[in-house]
Design a protein that fits this description.
Blueprint lengths: L3 H14 L4 H14 L6 H9 L5 H4 L1 E2 L2 E2 L9 H4 L2 H9 L12 E5 L4 E9 L3 E7 L2 E6 L3 E6 L9 H4 L2 H12 L5
Antiparallel strand pairs: 1-2, 3-4, 3-7, 4-5, 5-6
């Protein structure tokens, strides 16, 4: 719904952040999107979402089921398009949902940890470093916290899932409209 000039500028900025290199990644994404079967099935997509192969539910919840490392997806179909979802699946480092931005936390001893800041207290920071891996860190031990350009979500699901499984997964996610 934004004017063409704003859409174009936003697309350019997103393309520049794609980890695979700008227009090449965009072309790969468009090619993949156009090659997916049109008969994605919601129920099969739910099985893909919950499968060990895709492992989506390890980090993402829908309703009360799933992990909390990544964004909750109960209403994702209301706010994202097929292209948006496919980009998030294939190139998860292209953009980040607010409050799920990855960071590199460097400690005063020189060690570094990658994760998502889940909670910041006066004396402690809680860093989610993986599914079910929450690391409390004393604030006095933190030298710096810097944005990371790399998502905790692994890239390249299109290499793991078949095109039919991707189409099914997209159908399932698009059907999540919330209440």
């Amino acid at each position: 719904s934004y004017p063409a000039g704003i859409q174009s500028k936003a697309e350019q900025q997103v393309l520049s952040r794609l980890s695979r290199g700008g227009s090449d990644a965009a072309a790969e994404l468009e090619s993949l999107l156009s090659s997916l079967p049109n008969d994605g099935d919601i129920r099969r997509g739910q099985r893909v979402f919950q499968s060990a192969k895709a492992a989506c539910s390890t980090c993402h919840a829908i309703g009360y089921l799933g992990g909390d490392l990544g964004p909750e997806l109960s209403s994702i179909g209301k706010i994202r398009s097929s292209r948006d979802l496919l980009e998030a699946i294939v190139f998860p480092s292209a953009s980040f949902v607010q409050s799920y931005e990855p960071v590199i936390l460097t400690k005063t001893d020189g060690s570094a940890l990658a994760g998502i800041v889940k909670d910041e207290g006066r004396d402690e920071i809680l860093l989610a470093a993986g599914p079910g891996v929450n690391i409390p860190i004393d604030r006095k031990d933190v030298a710096s916290i810097d944005p990371s350009p790399i998502s905790l979500m692994p890239p390249g699901m299109h290499s793991i899932l078949s095109k039919q499984e991707l189409a099914d997964l997209l159908s399932f996610l698009l059907s999540r409209k919330g209440k």
